[in-house]
């Protein structure tokens, strides 16, 4: 009971608030946009035709109904929540009558796979290399650190673009866009999938890794001077054990927290990277939707990312006491 | 201590103390000089067609005519863009404007962050819980999609400063949480009690006793703030959502990309802009490393030679 | 428990402070101070010691007195006034002036980023002890002289430029600036070398005798307590288990816990080495949650009743003892047997 | 839950074989902190020209105020020399069964062979010396596995047995450090340092910042550990009470110099150096409320120690010779039975009287103790 | 053990992609030999997947439905000629244009072997007429508006009866981008919900049938029918087995990526890239070519033109004709066309593209030529002749200077019409006459004493429009006006002009159709469609973003409506419209559309080009059905 009341419930509540606040914001912002999807659709439909005003009016009403834009913004808001709780994100505006659910459903696995892989790999490699760098200071590690510090602030798309040019043009080794053959989980699909995902993954990995590296190195350096590491060093523990169980294990704790908090920016990076590489994930879909003023798709994706990121944070938060035996809540 | 003389002394002291600070300082002075040079540019900020287009660095180019109508020739340091602008002078404008955007963003974001961080940290109770919950929610929100949307709404009307304000408004949640944690721990430190028993009122305690401890955090945050703001500026500009007619590091990249600089091997258009972004942020990073190290009481003690025997 | 509020400088009545801590997924309710009562006399200044192991609640009690913690229940009176419910203004204008703290770690007492004299000036100015520049300097200098320092030695120095003893003296001097009637000194010497402790403890004696300042002295070091204090309250896991004049309590401890404490003192005499067992707690929180006597877990004279029932405070031999060994409601034979099992009474 | 009871045996002082050989010998040891900052070299002579020998099986105490070089001496004896600490001169040698080992020139292999199996170290402030995210049993395994072939199960079994032997509750093995009380943590640390039955144990202020009851438990544990294998225990603490209760012999350090060395009872009964007398005199005692004073003044800064006897600015007996010449550390004639190590003192004005006589006059003009 | 497993897993995660990349050099998503596969630029990324219903509303690129479907006629954009589809005879109207009779080709078959006949057309018309949701292209609204009845006369003849005269009713079945596509009556009559029917399995009337689609919308694969001889395309080509076996449409992304794809041999044709990208493509890929083998390379006869548009509704200064003329005279068209456009588009002084057909009807028509050469405008009371006939020649000189080989045609045929003089002095006079003043720096101030400044909006991804805006901003700034160039993303730019949130912008449009008819485009400018900003400009069904109200135009539009497009009187009215427009300088027209439609002759040859100008290369207009049908394989 205490567990539930004192620990899980407040966090679940927090999770709910995060989602409500986030979704409300994302509901409102597109509706403040000057780009009216009805006008756009009308423009498309009437482009080659001579129409009488009545016909235009009829078309407009029909579109409003289709797009769920009838009524005041408050009514729209509650209808939106109603649909949402029913698991329906509505129709796409740009690709009417496609359902947003279907569009997201198609893109989601790509993004999740890319994001999960690069985040975990970046995290692991960053911590390992960063801890090594903290452990063995010297010319080489300074060089690596220098490179990382330089790479870290470079915006995602620059790295993405450099890779794109280098490995699709000068050395035409990778496909220009995401190319996937065969049915999922067939050998051919996996082969083409890996082939297409390599560059976006490396881009995300490098940027993610650089920050993890910098952080791990700083934390590792601090940890090395801590009493328990010094004592273990004095006791002649082997380097590998010191590095893993003593330095890295302890530096991982703030890294876990940071990982939970940085899911949002990692997602942003994925968005840009996907767009550059023509990788058919959520990011690419979102960018297209924003350009087409496709509210429902934008909202669907933003909403999903809020829920996803909030849930990721919740999981990190809930699991933190399991990771760190010291943690006390007060 | 906080006078000009004190500042100069501190900086000198820091330069001696920390290699990171030294390098960061030099890099930033260089970058600031670049920004300052913009006021001496022979070209106007938003002007195109000043030079021949797309010439590589150190080419001799015609830069106009003298009074007699004779062409004047000069070598261009970093080459020219496809829009007929001198890359070097464009870069000075770009650095200045990006600094303005990022600086505004950092200033606004950190002001909100400090204010909220301190408020929540000191007030505690329901106020803290409500505000902290909201802050936590905002941390989790993915900002880039929102930013792209807002930029799309304001585009055309958004000024350089406006973009800075917008970025600032979006970048305070994370630091304010950090300040709150810091304030919470400072509040329990013994010297805080000493200050209270010395009869200092809360404002004095915060300003005199706690602020100095927040400075390293602030500096570290300023760096990450700059990093984020520059990254966002560049990303928005790349997507064509910034004010691309104003030279910024991002719009330089945008135009370079727009005119297929990489395809045409006109790397001189892109490299200076990327380098400027990297140097600025790396400079700030090193600076903050140095200052943080310097202000750390533990290292300060060793520095002053009070070592254990 | 009702104390003589009117005639006490400080009167603490059944003060309680409960912490709820969460460790991992489990919650513990810790009674860090459990209905502690004591009083510092008003007629003449005294050094009153709160002694006990670490984790006995003595520091929490000191913080309660200083108002740094909120009491969960209980009362506290200073010069007859209820000080648990002061307005902020009353607290600042009157109480803080009357009661000043001295903290354990002299280096943590002052911000390492500030000059140490700034605290002295702040205190003088904020409590309006002097107004002119000269007056302030003189007032500060006077306080520093009282602790054996001078303004010249301290001015412009950062805390880390002073030795621990000097910094602790400055801390005392700062506390004296408001001309308080009570100093609350929380383990003021535990961070100092044994050879330096005496100088601070002596200072308290001087303050009591010459400056008429009472000191609430919180320590685990019974030798300095014996040396300096007039009266003592021994604390165990939030309880005051034995209190009275220091000669009585430490000279002839009655409570098995006090005996244990006294036995543990390492005397600087190779002839007088320890006898008997020292008993220690494994976990700090364990004893707080024990039903019955909190010492029952490691008491050599433990009886069955101790494990189930909380003992009363018994007035015996000029002191108050919280132990069934002296409770006449417990059959005498049982008590004698228990005492025989227990450590030899010193 | 049963009460934690420390070992109660062995209340008498450990007996030292009079003919025991020296396990550690230091000769002319100079361990300085040398820092180089922007071309300015700073030297802190934390240990300066120090010679001592510690015999097998004894408990050797090193006493002195903070800032006297105690911990540095211990690091030097341990061979744990990390910049800016530099050995400027002298040598430290261990002598176990297999010939002498130069402690200051240990290779990685030497270190691996010696550390924990022969020489061990009990640190100050156990609060942070245990890995906070590792259960005690895993830390035990780490420490054991670093020095001998073992499986995790074997290590834990070994640790369990050892804790039982020491009278500690084996249940702590499953705990994390933060779950233990300070005293328990310190005792676990001692067990951790001694589980491989080292011949030589260095303990640096093992009881500082512990309250009396815990302190007593720790000291008794140390005694127990020492007695088990008749190890040599080198104990650094500023607390003379601990020395009185635990050690066989005490060396008193002042400002990086050894000023007096004698067996414990001599040190406490008939200390000859004024500083030693001060150290002991300044301690309050139960049952005695007569006024005591601390040592006037404070130890000198070691980057610029006073000429001559380093104690002279604080010494009421100081004369001109003290200000000019460094007093040599010489054996006291006519004391001791000739077989044990001599009582050595470095003072021109030794006081040859039992302490009770209160020979030192407190100079009224002396600065306040600090 | 667990640790080892994790290690192995991580190692695999790193190694497998690394090993894999060496095994997978091809960037194409399908496994079809290149001698059977033609790859072309898809232009858009599909957001609607696996839906080949070409009648439903929503985005659709014409090349897709033209590959699989068939309408009655096609309009050659260049010549204005009608090309036959499912009908190879022009429609026959009765005298008052209330009845239209259509004769269908009798040799076409659906891909399932059923013959195509009049039942299919009648079914198609009636279905669309009765189903508002099948409104792509506005056909439904048109039928509701005009149609009285549709009747089958015989198996290959259908008669439409209209409720009022409409000489342009056949346009519904004439594909410029899209015409009403034929539905298979025998199959669709069985389907209840045609709106949501995805039409994945045919039967199709076009040459190709869809076989595979990228679930992510980046590409679409079509396979040639087994009976190509029964399709209109192969019958047009008089080749029983015309066209590649497979067509892959694929979207790589922006100019850079398209060029890279072509250099990699993974793209055989793309719609357009910018000038710089095209140049770098030529340098790296010798087999790539656009319309001309030499300068100016690009296909010049796209049927639209670029212009600078004013908003007459919200900004006072735009309503001053003199100011508009001053702005026009402050533009150096030669510099604009050479420096900004690269010399590759034809100059036009009015919004009529300079295709051979339209040049003949408008620019080179004696009536227009005489008018423009003698055109006089009033400059501060003095008459002034603004026309400069030497523009094309000067561009030719510039091209010589650049060392470009000149095309065989005359300068005018290559570089377009004359334009307005670059005469900043006269422009200054015009402004000063209207109370504008100039300070010592040459900066202009409005009569109210404020700095004369405005913004020009354009979408950077619409390359030439944006460069026109860029050039105008540069030149006007040089002239002393503070002009801000706003590059806006296309949807925002679009929304801005639709709601009147701009001062000037750079759109593209044409006043006439490729066959020369003006009414369908010009009718929007009728003042009855006017709505004030910020209402949607086309809220009333017509409308212009400029919010122009001019009774003279109204009269001309009304007069055109009931005239047959080919009626000489119609042409005269269109001329009058254009003259009136220019005299008022309502828009500043700049250059005709050009397109770097580029073909890589690596796997496929015989694309349309200047040497092979049988049909225009704009494959996205009619889905490339004719040009793709004419391709010949070069072997894999």
Annotation, overall tally of beta strands of chain A: 1
Shape of chain A: globular
Summing up helix and strand content along with how strands pair, one would put the structural category of chain E as alpha+beta
Total beta strands of chain E = 28
Strand fraction band of chain A? under 5%
- How many alpha or pi helices of chain A? 12
Question: Unreliable stretches of chain E, pLDDT < 50, 5 or more residues?
Answer: 21-25
Summed over residues and divided by their number, the pLDDT of chain E gives a mean of 86
Largest interface between protein chains, with number of residues from each side: A-E, 62 and 73 residues
The percent range for strand residues of chain E is 15-25%
Give the end-to-end Cα distance of chain A, rounded to a whole number of Å. 17 Å
Nearest-angstrom radius of gyration of chain E? 27 Å
Shape of chain E: globular
The level-1 CATH class of the largest domain in chain A: Mainly Alpha
**Low-confidence parts of chain A, pLDDT < 50 over ≥5 residues?**
none
Q: Number of helix segments of chain E?
A: 21
Please trace the helix and strand order of chain A, writing H or E for each element: HHHHHHHHHHHHE
Q: In words, what does this structure look like?
A:
The complex is a heteropentamer of chains A (330), B (309), C (346), D (370) and E (636). With 309 residues, chain B is mainly alpha-helical. Chain B has helices at residues 4-17, 19-37, 87-123, 125-140, 143-154, 160-170, 173-187, 190-197, 202-238, 249-258, 267-295, 297-303, and strands at 60-65, 71-75. In chain B, helix 3 (87-123) runs parallel beside helix 6 (160-170), helix 4 (125-140) packs antiparallel against helix 7 and helix 10 packs antiparallel against helix 11 (267-295). Chain D starts with a strand and ends in a 25-residue tail after the last strand. In chain E, the strands form 9 sheets. In chain E, strands 14, 21, 22, 23, 24 and 25 form a 6-stranded mixed sheet that branches. Chain E has a 4-stranded mixed sheet with strand order 1-11-10-9, with no helix packed on it. In chain E, helix 7 runs parallel beside helix 8 (275-284), helix 10 (333-340) crosses helix 16 and helix 19 (551-561) runs antiparallel to helix 20 (568-584). Residues 21-25 of chain E have low confidence and may be disordered. The chains are: A mainly alpha (330), B mainly alpha (309), C alpha/beta (346), D alpha/beta (370), E alpha+beta (636). Chains A and E meet through helix 2, helix 3, helix 5, helix 7 and helix 8 of A and helix 1, helix 4, helix 7 and helix 17 of E. Strand 11 (279-280) of chain C pairs antiparallel with strand 1 (4-5) of chain D.
Keywords summarizing the entry:
D: alpha/beta, four-stranded antiparallel beta sheet, 13 strands, 26% helix, disordered N terminus, E: 636 residues, alpha+beta, 32% helix
Topology:
The complex is a heteropentamer of chains A (about 325), B (about 300), C (about 350), D (about 375) and E (about 625).
Chain A: H1 2-31, H2 37-46, H3 53-67, H4 73-85, H5 100-135, H6 139-151, H7 156-170, H8 187-224, H9 227-234, H10 239-277, H11 282-291, H12 295-323, E1 328-329
Helix pairs in contact in A: 1-12, 2-3, 5-6, 5-8, 5-10, 5-12, 6-8, 7-8, 7-10, 8-10, 9-10, 10-11, 10-12, 11-12
Chain C: E1 8-23, E2 26-41, E3 47-52, H1 58-66, E4 73-78, E5 81-82, H2 88-98, E6 99-102, H3 106-109, H4 117-126, H5 133-146, H6 151-154, H7 164-176, E7 182-186, H8 194-210, E8 214-219, H9 222-228, E9 231-236, E10 239-245, H10 246-251, H11 256-264, E11 279-280, E12 314-316, E13 319-321, H12 332-341
Parallel strand pairs in C: 3-8, 3-9, 6-7, 7-8
Antiparallel strand pairs in C: 1-2, 1-4, 4-5, 9-10, 10-13, 12-13
Helix pairs in contact in C: 4-5, 5-7
Chain D: E1 4-5, E2 22-37, E3 40-55, E4 59-63, H1 70-78, E5 85-96, E6 99-102, H2 108-114, E7 119-122, H3 136-145, H4 152-165, H5 182-194, E8 200-204, H6 212-229, E9 232-236, H7 240-246, E10 249-254, E11 257-263, H8 264-269, H9 274-281, H10 320-324, E12 330-331, E13 344-345
Parallel strand pairs in D: 4-9, 4-10, 7-8, 8-9
Antiparallel strand pairs in D: 2-3, 2-5, 5-6, 10-11, 11-13, 12-13
Helix pairs in contact in D: 3-4, 5-6
């Amino acid at each position: 009971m205490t567990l539930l009341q004192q620990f899980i419930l407040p966090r679940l509540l927090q999770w709910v608030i995060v989602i409500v606040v986030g979704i409300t914001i994302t509901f409102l912002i597109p509706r403040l946009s000057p780009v009216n999807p009805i006008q756009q659709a009308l423009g498309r439909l009437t482009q080659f035709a001579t129409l009488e005003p009545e016909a235009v009016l009829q078309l407009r009403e029909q579109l409003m109904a289709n797009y769920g834009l009838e009524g005041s913004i408050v009514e729209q808001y509650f209808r939106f929540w109603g649909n949402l709780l029913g698991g329906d994100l509505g129709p796409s505006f740009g690709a009417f009558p496609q359902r947003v659910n279907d569009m997201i459903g198609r893109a989601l696995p790509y993004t999740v796979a890319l994001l999960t892989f690069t985040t975990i790999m970046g995290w692991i490699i960053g911590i390992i290399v960063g801890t090594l760098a903290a452990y063995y200071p010297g010319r080489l590690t300074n060089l690596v650190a220098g490179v990382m510090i330089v790479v870290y602030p470079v915006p995602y798309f620059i790295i993405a673009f450099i890779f794109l040019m280098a490995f699709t043009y000068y050395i035409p080794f990778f496909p220009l866009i995401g190319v996937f053959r065969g049915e999922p989980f067939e050998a051919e699909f996996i082969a083409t999938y890996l082939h297409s995902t390599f560059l976006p993954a490396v881009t995300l990995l490098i940027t993610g890794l650089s920050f993890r590296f910098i952080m791990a190195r700083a934390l590792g350096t601090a940890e090395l001077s801590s009493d328990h590491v010094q004592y273990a060093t004095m006791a002649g523990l082997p380097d590998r054990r010191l590095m893993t169980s003593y330095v890295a294990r302890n530096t991982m704790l703030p890294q876990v927290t940071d990982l939970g908090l940085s899911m949002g920016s990692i997602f942003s990076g994925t968005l840009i990277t996907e767009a550059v590489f023509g990788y058919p994930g959520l990011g690419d879909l979102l960018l297209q939707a924003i350009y087409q003023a496709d509210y429902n798709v934008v909202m669907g994706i933003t909403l999903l990312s809020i829920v996803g990121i909030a849930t990721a944070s919740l999981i990190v938060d809930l699991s933190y006491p399991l990771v760190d035996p010291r943690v006390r809540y007060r | 201590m906080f006078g000009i003389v004190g500042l100069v002394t501190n900086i000198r002291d820091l330069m001696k103390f920390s290699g990171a600070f030294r390098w960061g300082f030099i890099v930033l002075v260089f970058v600031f000089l670049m920004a300052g040079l913009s006021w001496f540019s022979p070209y106007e900020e938003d002007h195109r067609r000043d030079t021949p287009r797309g010439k590589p660095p150190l080419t001799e180019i015609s830069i106009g005519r003298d009074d007699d109508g004779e062409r004047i020739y000069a070598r261009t340091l970093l080459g020219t863009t496809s829009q007929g602008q001198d890359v070097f002078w464009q870069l000075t404008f770009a650095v200045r404007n990006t600094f303005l955007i990022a600086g505004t963003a950092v200033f606004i974001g950190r002001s909100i962050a400090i204010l909220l961080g301190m408020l929540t940290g000191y007030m505690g109770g329901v106020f803290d819980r409500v505000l902290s919950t909201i802050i936590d929610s905002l941390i989790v929100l993915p900002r880039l999609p929102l930013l792209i949307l807002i930029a799309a709404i304001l585009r055309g009307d958004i000024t350089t400063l406006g973009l800075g304000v917008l970025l600032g408004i979006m970048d305070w949640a994370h630091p304010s949480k950090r300040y709150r944690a810091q304030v919470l721990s400072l509040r329990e430190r013994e010297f805080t009690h000493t200050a209270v028993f010395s009869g200092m009122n809360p404002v004095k305690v915060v300003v005199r006793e706690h602020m100095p401890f927040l400075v390293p955090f602030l500096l570290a945050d300023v760096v990450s703030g700059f990093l984020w703001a520059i990254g966002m500026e560049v990303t928005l500009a790349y997507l064509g959502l910034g004010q691309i007619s104003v030279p910024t590091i991002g719009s330089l990249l945008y135009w370079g990309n727009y005119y297929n600089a990489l395809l045409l091997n006109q790397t001189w258009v892109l490299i200076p802009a990327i380098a400027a972004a990297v140097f600025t942020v790396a400079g700030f990073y090193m600076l903050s490393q140095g200052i943080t190290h310097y202000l750390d009481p533990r290292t300060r003690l060793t520095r002053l030679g009070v070592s254990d025997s | 428990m009702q104390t003589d509020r009117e005639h006490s400088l400080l009167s603490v009545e059944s003060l309680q402070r409960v912490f709820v801590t969460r460790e991992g997924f489990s919650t513990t309710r810790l009674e860090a101070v459990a209905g502690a009562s004591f009083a510092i006399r008003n007629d003449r200044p005294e050094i009153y010691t709160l002694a006990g192991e670490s984790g006995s609640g003595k520091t929490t009690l000191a913080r309660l007195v200083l108002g740094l913690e909120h009491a969960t229940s209980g009362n506290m009176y200073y010069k007859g006034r209820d000080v648990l419910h002061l307005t902020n203004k009353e607290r600042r204008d009157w109480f803080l002036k009357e009661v000043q703290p001295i903290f354990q770690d002299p280096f943590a007492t002052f911000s390492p980023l500030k000059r140490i004299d700034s605290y002295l000036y702040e205190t003088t100015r904020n409590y309006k002890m002097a107004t002119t520049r000269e007056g302030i300097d003189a007032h500060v200098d006077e306080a520093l002289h009282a602790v054996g320092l001078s303004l010249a030695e301290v001015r412009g120095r950062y805390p880390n430029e002073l030795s621990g003893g000097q910094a602790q003296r400055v801390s005392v001097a700062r506390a004296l600036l408001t001309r308080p009637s009570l100093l609350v000194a929380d383990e003021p010497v535990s961070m100092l070398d044994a050879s330096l402790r005496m100088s601070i403890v002596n200072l308290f004696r001087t303050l009591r005798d010459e400056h008429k300042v009472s000191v609430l002295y919180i320590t685990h070091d019974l030798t300095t307590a014996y040396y300096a204090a007039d009266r003592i309250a021994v604390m165990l896991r939030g309880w005051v288990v034995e209190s009275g004049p220091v000669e009585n309590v430490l000279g002839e401890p009655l409570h098995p816990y006090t005996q244990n404490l006294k036995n543990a003192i390492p005397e600087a005499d190779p002839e007088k080495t320890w006898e008997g067992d020292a008993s220690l707690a494994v976990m700090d929180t364990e004893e707080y949650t024990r039903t019955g006597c909190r010492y029952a877990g490691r008491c050599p004279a433990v009886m069955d009743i101790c494990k189930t029932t909380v003992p009363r405070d018994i007035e015996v031999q000029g002191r108050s003892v919280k132990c069934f060994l002296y409770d006449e409601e417990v059959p005498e034979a049982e008590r004698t047997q228990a005492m025989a099992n227990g450590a030899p009474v010193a | 839950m049963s009460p934690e009871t420390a070992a109660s045996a062995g209340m008498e002082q450990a007996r030292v074989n009079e003919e025991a050989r020296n396990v550690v010998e230091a000769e002319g040891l100079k361990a300085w902190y040398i820092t180089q900052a922007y071309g300015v070299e700073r030297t802190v002579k934390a240990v300066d020209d120090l010679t001592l020998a510690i015999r097998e099986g004894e408990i050797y105490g090193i006493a002195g105020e903070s800032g006297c070089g105690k911990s540095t001496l211990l690091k030097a004896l341990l061979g744990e020399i990390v910049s800016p600490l530099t050995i400027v001169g002298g040598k430290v040698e261990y002598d176990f069964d297999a010939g002498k080992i130069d402690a200051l020139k240990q290779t990685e292999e030497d270190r691996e062979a010696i550390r924990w199996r022969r020489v061990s170290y009990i640190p100050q402030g156990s609060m942070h010396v245990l890995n906070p995210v590792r259960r005690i049993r895993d830390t035990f395994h780490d420490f054991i596995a670093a020095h001998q072939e073992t499986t995790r199960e074997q290590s834990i079994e070994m640790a369990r047995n050892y804790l039982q032997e020491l009278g500690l509750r084996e249940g702590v093995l499953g705990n994390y450090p933060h779950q233990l009380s300070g005293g328990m943590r310190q005792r676990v640390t001692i067990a951790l340092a001694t589980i491989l039955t080292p011949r030589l144990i260095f303990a640096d202020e093992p009881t500082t910042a512990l309250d009396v009851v815990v302190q007593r438990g720790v000291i008794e544990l140390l005694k127990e550990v020492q007695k088990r294998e008749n190890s040599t225990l080198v104990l650094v603490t500023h607390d003379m009470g601990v020395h009185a209760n635990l050690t066989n012999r005490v060396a008193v350090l002042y400002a990086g110099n050894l000023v007096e060395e004698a067996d414990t009872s001599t040190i406490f009964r008939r200390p000859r150096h004024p500083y030693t007398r001060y150290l002991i005199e300044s301690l309050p005692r139960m049952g005695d409320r007569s006024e005591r004073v601390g040592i006037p003044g404070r130890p000198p800064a070691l980057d610029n120690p006073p000429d001559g006897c380093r104690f002279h600015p604080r010494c009421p007996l100081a004369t001109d010779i003290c200000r000019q010449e460094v007093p040599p550390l010489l054996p006291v004639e006519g004391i001791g039975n000739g077989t044990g190590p001599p009582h050595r003192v470095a003072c021109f004005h030794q006081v040859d009287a039992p302490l009770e006589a209160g020979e030192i006059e407190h100079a009224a003009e002396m600065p306040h103790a600090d | 053990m667990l640790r080892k497993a994790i290690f192995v897993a991580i190692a695999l995660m790193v190694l497998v992609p690394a090993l894999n990349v060496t095994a997978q050099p091809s960037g194409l998503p399908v496994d079809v030999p290149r001698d059977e596969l033609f790859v072309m630029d898809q232009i858009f990324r599909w957001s609607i997947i696996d839906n080949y219903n070409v009648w439903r509303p929503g985005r659709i690129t014409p090349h897709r439905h033209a590959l699989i479907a068939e309408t009655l006629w096609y309009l050659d954009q260049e010549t204005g000629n009608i090309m036959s589809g499912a009908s190879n005879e022009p429609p026959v109207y009765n005298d008052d244009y209330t009845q239209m009779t259509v004769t269908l080709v009798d040799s076409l078959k659906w891909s399932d072997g059923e013959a195509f006949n009049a039942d299919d057309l009648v079914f198609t018309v009636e279905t669309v007429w009765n189903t508002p949701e099948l409104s792509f292209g506005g056909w439904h609204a048109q039928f509701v508006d005009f149609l009285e009845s549709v009747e089958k006369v015989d198996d290959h003849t259908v008669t439409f009866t209209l409720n009022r005269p409409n000489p342009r009713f056949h346009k519904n079945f004439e594909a410029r981008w899209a015409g009403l596509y034929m539905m298979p009556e025998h199959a669709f009559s069985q389907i209840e919900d045609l709106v949501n029917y995805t039409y994945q399995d045919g039967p199709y009337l076009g040459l190709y049938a869809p076989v595979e689609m990228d679930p992510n919308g980046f590409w679409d694969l079509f396979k040639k029918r087994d009976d190509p001889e029964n399709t209109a395309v192969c019958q047009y080509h008089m080749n029983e087995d015309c066209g590649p076996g497979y067509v892959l449409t694929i979207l790589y992304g922006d100019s850079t990526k398209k060029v890279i794809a072509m250099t990699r041999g993974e793209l055989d044709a793309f719609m357009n890239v910018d000038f710089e990208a095209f140049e770098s493509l030529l340098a790296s890929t010798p087999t790539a070519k656009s319309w001309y083998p030499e300068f100016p390379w690009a296909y010049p006869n796209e049927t639209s033109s670029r212009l600078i548009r004013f908003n007459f509704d919200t900004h006072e200064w735009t309503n001053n004709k003199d100011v508009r003329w001053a702005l026009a005279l402050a533009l150096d068209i030669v510099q604009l066309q050479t420096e900004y456009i690269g010399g590759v588009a034809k100059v036009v002084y009015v919004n009529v593209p300079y295709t051979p057909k339209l040049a003949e009807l408008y620019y080179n028509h004696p009536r227009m030529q005489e008018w423009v050469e003698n055109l006089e405008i009033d400059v501060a009371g003095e008459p002034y002749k603004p026309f400069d006939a030497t523009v094309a020649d000067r561009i030719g000189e510039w091209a010589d200077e650049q060392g470009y080989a000149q095309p065989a045609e005359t300068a005018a045929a290559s570089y377009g019409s004359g334009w307005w003089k670059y005469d900043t002095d006269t422009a200054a006079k015009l402004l000063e006459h209207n109370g504008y003043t100039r300070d010592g720096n040459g900066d202009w101030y409005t009569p109210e004493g404020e700095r004369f400044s405005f913004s020009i909006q354009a979408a950077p991804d619409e390359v030439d429009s944006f460069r026109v805006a860029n050039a105008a901003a540069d030149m006007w700034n040089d002239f002393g006006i503070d002009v801000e160039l706003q590059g806006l993303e296309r949807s925002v730019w679009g929304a801005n002009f639709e709601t009147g949130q701009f001062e000037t912008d750079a759109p593209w449009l044409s006043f006439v159709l490729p066959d020369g008819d003006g009414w369908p485009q010009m009718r929007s400018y009728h003042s009855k469609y006017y709505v004030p900003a910020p209402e949607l400009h086309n809220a009333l069904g017509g409308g212009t973003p400029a919010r122009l109200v001019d009774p003279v135009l109204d009269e001309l539009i009304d007069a055109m409506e009931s005239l047959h497009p080919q009626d000489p009187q119609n042409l005269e009215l269109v001329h009058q419209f254009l003259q009136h427009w220019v005299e008022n300088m309502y828009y500043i027209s700049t250059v005709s559309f050009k397109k770097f439609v580029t073909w890589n002759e690596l796997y496929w040859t015989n694309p349309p080009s200047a040497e092979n100008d049988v049909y225009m290369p704009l494959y996205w207009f009619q889905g490339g059905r004719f040009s793709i049908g004419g391709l010949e394989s070069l072997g894999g």
